[in-house]
Write a structure and sequence with these properties.
It comes from Sesamum latifolium. The chain is α+β, with helices and mostly antiparallel strands and 710 residues long. Helix content is 36%, strand content 14%.
Length: 710
């Protein structure tokens, strides 16, 4: 009986389709323990020829026995869904070959992922350097196995770069030595141990000692507790021992270092001895106090204070960033417009004014709005010194030599701030794209369609559209009511192309000019959802994995399926005016394409109908539905008037299509191969599905006359 304690590895780490490399490694470990790993890669003949020797028969029988055992181990280490795909295969090499084709990740991808992990791994401040070193060492060994081609110096440099800032002294001293990776990790562990011991031995000042003689003398430790420093008023030391009076007073808690205890190597190659080590407290701009530990004090190479003179606002950090913003705007304007340097001052004034009148998310009130009231009463001043802000009761000083001005026109105290009324136009750099996007071969109006080479096909398509409108009783002809301006309409023409850019149909649509509608008069709500692309991709992936059917249906004149609630009147369509009733208008009973509310009305109508057939709306996408019927769960996706049906039960899908045809005028498109401009490639034997938009790429290339480019 096959007994192997290592088979527990396969039980706890079953193959689920995403862990092929780990599963294969565990499988080889288990089989190598029993000397059966050769079965994975060495297929034998299914039968021995006549006249085979005894040795060949023994070898063949052993292979059959080992093949059956390994076959059982492989199937037992898979999930139920994947197990069903391979239980029909008897020989192990065939199973391994198929799994390699489907699930194996190329070695180049594995090497890329390992290299990315190695370069991106960083040690967290305060964590164990030993565990970090073990992790980096395992990554190095993995890269060596994958033949990444990195040398020892590169590994050393990347490990040093992964350390936190507290290891900077170690890195500076380490750069001049040649060490192996194992020696480096050992030195890091020793450095961590030494640093922690030093941190635990931090002293405040220097310890004082006293040589007591005889009996009754007070010990030095007892004396120091009663001493009070006259400088910092703290107990435990004298002023001559106070750390605040020492050169290292910038460190709150410090420990003096011996002469050669810590030697730091500078960027220019010089070395300098640290005098002390301790903690430093800083208060940042938002009044948060942070403490920096293990700071080294160097007497002649410390931090230099940079003072800002009064009146030099350009040296302030906030003002410097604001000036940089102004200069960036000026350079952009000068470069884009091609202006000479003489316009620099005008560009700077324009940039400053734009910043002052443009609100932002962090500054809801512009400087213009905030300061306008204060600046309404400007008066000159000869003083160049800093002065306090004027009080509200301050009066303008009187000057004998003041120039008289004409009386100003009285205005409101707070002017109304308004935005720009200039016409918004797209940038000129998009002009060519906008122009070429209009260059298609579809007629733009009725007269062009009638003079087109395919005028008979356009006329036939328009008649079909009018027949559909008549069957739905979309409008009735009435005399135009007084005071009511009817909505206009127009014909829209489109040559429908297939995946290979060939013309498959001529489609026309009568569209109302919805831009002439007025909110609150002949429309209210307009929002209408469509299925999100990510949900369509998710359902297509599920269909490919479980080998579901994907069928497509199209709703003919979808927007004509719901009634309108508002009173809407429309002009009669061009080319189809009723004889003898030319003065009448169309009183719309149903929605029509182009109306503001048409899309919402159709979506509401479809939702009511589909819920009546026990479909449930998805919580995250209102255009994705599902229906639970026993073991079958069909999915329905709505994208305006295109419908996707996904299910493994063909009979139920047929019932759903038949029911939809009774509710709406439907067109059965069969199995999906092209939807929303995306071509679908499917290999059901391998349970794979691909999406392509090659036709859109070809369209863009043709638009810019680049279809022959390589």
């Amino acid at each position: 009986m096959f007994k192997n304690p290592l088979t527990l590895i396969m039980d706890t780490n079953k193959f689920n389709g995403t862990n092929y490399n780990d599963w294969l490694r565990n499988l080889r470990i288990v089989l190598d323990f029993e000397n059966q790993g050769y079965v994975l890669d060495n297929p034998l003949r299914t039968a021995l020829p006549k006249g085979s020797s005894l040795e060949e028969r023994v070898t063949f029988e052993k292979w059959l026995e080992d093949n059956n055992k390994v076959h059982s181990i492989i199937l037992a280490s898979m999930t139920n869904e994947i197990q069903k795909q391979y239980d029909r295969l008897d020989d192990v090499p065939s199973i391994m070959l198929l799994m390699k084709e489907v699930y194996a990740v190329p070695e180049r991808h594995i090497r890329y992922a390992a290299t990315k992990t190695f370069f991106g791994t960083k040690m967290i401040e305060g964590s164990s350097v030993q565990s970090h070193g073990v992790k980096m060492l395992s990554l190095v060994e993995k890269l060596e196995d994958l033949k990444a081609g990195l040398d020892n110096d590169t590994y050393i440099d990347m490990i040093l770069q992964s350390l936190p800032p507290s290891y900077d002294p170690f890195i500076i001293n380490m750069n001049g030595f040649e060490k192996t990776i194992h020696e480096l990790i050992n030195m890091l562990v020793q450095y961590e141990t030494t640093t922690h011991k030093s941190a635990s031995a931090v002293l405040v000042g220097e310890a004082s000692t006293s040589k007591g003689k005889g009996k009754g003398k007070i010990g030095a430790s007892q004396q120091s507790k009663a001493n009070v420093c006259i400088h910092c008023q703290e107990k435990g030391h004298w002023k001559r021992e106070c750390h605040n009076c020492s050169p290292t007073q910038v460190l709150e808690r410090s420990r003096r270092l011996s002469k050669d205890e810590m030697i730091l190597r500078l960027d220019d190659g010089k070395t300098v001895a640290a005098k002390a080590v301790g903690s430093l407290s800083l208060v940042i701009s938002n009044h948060i106090r942070i403490e920096l530990k293990d700071c080294y004090y160097v007497s002649k190479n410390g931090i230099l204070s940079q003072w800002t003179p009064p009146g030099t606002l350009h040296l302030n950090g906030v003002a410097k960033r604001r000036n940089r913003t102004l200069l960036d705007m000026v350079r952009s304007m000068m470069t884009f417009m091609g202006l000479p340097p003489s316009f620099w001052g005008y560009a700077l004034e324009t940039a400053a004014k734009l910043l002052n009148i443009a609100p932002s998310k962090t500054v809801p009130q512009t400087p213009y709005e905030i300061w306008h009231v204060f600046l309404e009463k400007d008066f000159p001043s000869d003083s160049g010194r800093d002065e306090a802000l004027l009080e509200e009761t301050s009066e303008a000083p009187q000057h004998d030599n003041a120039t008289s001005f004409e009386p100003s026109v009285p205005t409101d105290s707070v002017p109304v701030f308004r935005g720009s009324t200039r016409e918004s136009r797209p940038p000129e750099r998009y002009g060519f794209v906008g122009l070429t996007s209009q260059l298609d071969n579809n007629p733009r109006m009725y007269k062009e369609a009638m003079s087109d080479i395919d005028s008979d096909k356009w006329l036939e398509a328009m008649k079909s559209e009018m027949d559909s409108i008549g069957s739905h009783q979309v409008w009735t002809l009435v005399d135009p009511p007084k005071g009511v301006r009817p909505v206009g309409c127009k014909w829209v023409y489109k040559r429908k192309l297939g995946a290979d850019r060939e013309v498959t149909a001529f489609k026309t649509r009568l569209v109302a000019k919805g831009y002439t509608q007025r909110p609150g008069v002949n429309f209210e709500e307009t929002y209408s959802p469509v299925a999100m692309a990510k949900f369509i991709r998710i359902l297509l992936a599920i269909s490919a994995w479980y080998n579901y059917e994907i069928w497509q249906m199209d709703v003919k004149t979808a927007f004509l399926n719901d009634f309108v609630e508002e009173e809407i009147y429309m002009d009669q369509p061009e080319g189809f005016t009723s004889v003898g009733e030319e003065q009448k208008v169309c009183h719309l009973q149903r929605s029509i394409y182009g109306l503001k509310q048409a899309s919402r009305s159709w979506n509401t109508r479809f939702d009511e109908v589909i819920r009546g057939y026990d479909f449930i709306k998805n919580e995250h996408d209102p255009c994705v539905y599902k229906k639970i019927s026993g073991s079958s769960v069909p999915y329905l996706v709505l994208y305006v008037d295109d419908i996707l049906l996904i299910e493994n039960d063909v009979k139920m899908l047929g019932d759903i299509k038949a029911w939809l045809s009774t509710q709406f005028s439907m067109k059965d498109m069969g199995e999906t191969s092209y939807i929303l401009g995306i071509k679908i490639y499917r290999d059901r034997s391998r349970r794979m599905l691909g999406l392509a938009q090659s036709s859109y790429i070809v369209k863009v290339l043709k638009r810019f006359k680049m279809e022959n480019s390589k």
